[in-house]
Amino acid sequence: MIDFSQDHFALFGLMPRYRLDHGRLDAAYRRLQSEVHPDRHASAAEAERRLALQSSARVNEAYRALKNPVDRAQYLLSLNGIDALSETDTALPEEFLEHQLTRREAVSDAVDKGDSEALVRLHSEAQAEMRELDSVLESELDKAHELRAASTTVRKFKFLSKLAADIESAIADLEG
Amino acid sequence: MALLQIAEPGEAPPRKPQRLAVGIDLGTTNSLVATIRNGIPVVLPDEEGRPLLPSIVRYGAERVDVGYAAEAAQSHDPQNTIVSVKRLMGRGLADLSDARRFPYRFIDAPGMVQIQTRAGVKTPVEISSEILKALRVRAEHTLDGELAGAVVTVPAYFDDSQRQATKDAARLAGLNVLRLLNEPTAAAIAYGLDNGSEGLYAVYDLGGGTFDLSILKLSRGVFEVLATAGDTALGGDDFDHRIYCWVLETSGVGPLSPGDTRLLMMKAREAKENLTIHASAPVVATLSSGDQIDVALTANTFASITQTLIGKTLGPVKKALRDAKLAPSDIKGVVMVGGATRMPQIQKAVAEFFGQPPLNNLNPDQVVALGAAIQANVLAGNRAKGEDWLLLDVIPLSLGLETMGGLTEKIIPRNATIPIARAQEFTTFKDGQTAMAIHVVQGERERVADCRSLARFELRGIPPMVAGAARIQVTFQVDADGLLSVSAREQTTGVEAAITVKPSYGLSDADVARMLEESYAHAADDMTARALAEAQVEAERVAAATASALAVDGELLALQERVAIDRALAEVRRLIPGSDRRALHAAVEALNRATQDFAARRMNRSVAQALTGRSVDALN
Predict the structure, then answer these.
(1) Is the model's pLDDT at B347 over the cut of 80?
(2) B531 and chain A: CB distance < 8 Å anywhere?
(3) Is the pLDDT higher at B203 or at A100?
(4) Which of B179, B322, B422 comes nearest A172 by C-beta?
(5) N or C: which end of chain A has fewer CB within 10 A?
(6) What does the pLDDT read at residue A6?
(7) Which pLDDT value is given to residue B69?
(8) Which residue of chain A comes nearest to B480, CA vs CA?
């Protein structure tokens, strides 16, 4: 079965880097699940079935963590002993926070007015910013190894993806 | 009787026979059993050649009838003839918004409703097990051997209580459950393997009492469910009921006896089925009072009185697409499952929504059982060469825990691929807290009261520590059947508690889907409520900490300072039960400011005491 002491990247035979070949990740994920999934061990003994369950759950969890950019960056930092989202270290530049607060207000204004066009615009703004942060993370994590800076970028990213998710549910809400 | 094969001593044993495995579709209206024969999935009919078994159980004076025999008795013995029991699985009486529709003598019981019958009090699990037992007997008789195992299907949108109840019913029926399989996924297996399809598919599954919509990606032998949504209390039954109400309104008959109700519901169903091919259907019945009913329902009227129901199915369709981040045009094909999808107005609505005619080339009544049989055959170890396809399914509803202030902390989000395990750390709220109550919930809403309560348990024996020092790791594990188990462990001492979640007494919400719908409708309310609840928790924490500091070190304060702090504290306590978050927040801030110097003095004292060597224990 799988080696539980491996990190998520090693599990899928990948280098521990932020920029990933998603095709390779998907292929490795399918390969691993084809081996460990409980359906492949349904008629095995209890212990083997239990191990299959644990292994398959571990593979799913690792896949999820690598698939999402924020989770992947956060995980890379944790491999370097940095807890990017720890409660005691949530500082974000004031400028960024102010900008986001303004944005949050714009979102709730648009929700109040039922203005879905404004919401769509705010959503694409947030997404554009997330794309920018994605390349920042690549340079900070894969090239310059500026881990402290990357930690701040991850927090910004997390903030923005929460905002984007909230806008999405607000849009869905308006559309019914 | 099968002959036993005996090998010659010293010779190789005969080739291992195929292990008998079946797929069972336990439906609201009808149930089926299927198996693989000569490599082909087939439904096993009864002795009279009928593939379906009506999901009806009658408790007679001396015996239990299941299927057609029970169906015949339903209008003259409605209280002992149970139909649509699937709608009651894992549900408390308070969950059943439509309880009055059933003519049964319900008994409210913790966890799940019960029914008083001639044969005594029966639970939905027991009633369902009679149906499953009949199918097991049919399969063993036809296949002439004992079953090695069965795959039993459940609506994808079934929550943990409903799944657990189904598995319990199968066990009670003497079945070895190889897997609980989601109905739309089963249909996709039957469909996909038959057609060698690749790409994104939607499965629109409208059964007798449940609706599911799943979106799957089929590629290179992997069936990957991307998202699922649905309504566990919406199905063909509801269309019958609309016709029934229309007949009552049109013919102006008064309140009906349970027997007449059942009679008219049967007539309504016949009319619905008629309208699949005819433009108009007669509803003719003689009531027990002697009154005659004779009306004609046109297809147009039928379409207009069921428009709302069709609209209700499109909500989950949109939601699943959103969750999968797809547009209707991304879908390569829409597979129709369930007898109710034969209704022309549904075919039309689905075609319009997806911009393409839906796929109907497999029998919508049988496709789920056939897919389950294929899966059962593989799980029983009869996998043929080349059959290396894999199924990756998801959990339909988020799982979480209750945290302070009655809020839900999600641990596993909906549409996460199963099996999955996820752990989260929590801590204690009070100094010296030695136990922690863990309340497991399922649903999308922010407030625990709006989600389904699955279980409560306690982690005891936490050694006394200051608030926030304990590290309690709570692990959620969902297996390949979609069933949850939860364990909790205090990390610093290893104190452990674990449970497999069994349905606890349900809450007042009638069904999971409505909860989800409301979570969208009330998103704004939720955010406000959440902010208030968080502020209240914080205020309580600050007030308690201040009070305990005053009790220990109050003499460090001058009278005037003491009065100011007492006043600020009283103001916080006055505002906690209210709903003015801003005022509460301001009062907490004021209390924090009033106690700043006091806190510094206390700190100095404790440092000084530590330096003089007094142990911490001696301070208490």
Answers:
(1) yes
(2) no
(3) B203
(4) B322
(5) C
(6) 85
(7) 92
(8) A38
- Residue A122: CATH number of its domain: 1.20.1280.20
pLDDT value of residue B179: 95
Residue A85 lies in a domain: no
* Average pLDDT for B385-397: 85
Q: State whether residue A116 sits within 8 Å of chain B by CB.
A: no
Torsion angles phi and psi, residue B508, rounded to 5: -70, -15
| Whole-number pLDDT of residue B536 | 80
Cβ separation of A53 and B479 shorter than 8 Å? yes
A98 shares a domain with A63: no
Top pLDDT among B253 and B482 is at B482
- Helices A147-175, B523-553: axis angle to 10 degrees equals 130
User: What is the rounded distance in angstroms from the CA atom of residue A68 to the CA atom of residue A58?
Assistant: 16
Please indicate, yes or no, if residue A89 is contained in any of the structural domains: no
Q: Is residue A33 less than 8 Å (CB to CB) from chain B?
A: yes
Find the farthest-apart pair of alpha carbons in chain A and give their distance in angstroms, rounded: 60
Contact B552, B605 (CB under 8 A): no
Residue carrying structure tokens 């649509």 = B84
Q: Are B50 and B75 in contact (CB under 8 A)?
A: no
Could you tell me the two tokens for B363?
């029998």
Tell whether A98 and A168 lie within a shared domain: yes
Q: Averaged over B57-76, what is the pLDDT?
A: 91
Report yes or no: B480 at the A interface, CB cutoff 8 Å.
yes
Q: Which domain holds residue A62?
A: 8-67
Contacts of B198 (CB under 8 A, 6+ apart): B218, B219, B220
Residue A50 lies in a domain: yes
Asked if pLDDT for residue B264 goes beyond 60, the answer is yes
* Listed residues A67, A86, A108: the one ending a domain: A67
Grouped pLDDT means (10 residues each) for chain A, 176 residues:
82 93 92 89 78 91 94 94 71 82 90 89 93 94 90 91 88 75
Greater confidence, B141 or B17?
B141
Sorting pLDDT into bands at 50, 70 and 90, what band is B262?
A: confident
Of A67, A83, A114, the domain-final residue: A67
Note whether B390 contacts A37, CB cutoff 8 Å. yes
Is the domain of A51 the same as that of A108? no
Residues A57, A102, single domain; the answer is no
Indicate the pLDDT class of residue B612, thresholds 50, 70 and 90: very low
Q: CB of A170 within 8 Å of any CB in chain B?
A: yes
Q: Which of B183, B444, B481, B490 does the annotation list as catalytic? A: B183
Neighbours of B295 (CB within 10 A): 16
Q: How many CB pairs under 8 A join A and B?
A: 70
Q: How many domains does chain A have?
A: 2
Q: Which of residues 297-336 of B touch A (CB under 8 A)?
A: 315, 318-319, 322
Query: Is residue A23, in this structure, part of any structural domain at all?
Result: yes
When scoring A39, A88, A120 by the number of chain B Cβ atoms within 10 A, the one with the most, hence best to mutate, is A39
Q: A39, B378: Cβ pair inside 8 Å?
A: yes
**Whether residue A46 is found in the same domain as residue A104:** no
Active site residue B237: no
DSSP secondary structure string for all residues of B105-151? EEE--SSS-EEEETTEEE-HHHHHHHHHHHHHHHHHHHHTS--SEEE
Q: Are residues A100 and A34 in the same domain?
A: no
d(CA A164, CA B428): 32
Higher-confidence residue of A94 and B479: namely B479
| pTM, 2 dp | 0.79
**3-class SS at B473?**
strand
Does residue B25 carry a catalytic annotation? yes
Whole-number Cα distances in Å, B515 to A134, B98, B237, B482, B521: 35, 16, 21, 20, 10
Q: Do A170 and A99 belong together in one domain?
A: yes
A111 shares a domain with A53: no
Q: What is the mean pLDDT of residues B203-229?
A: 92
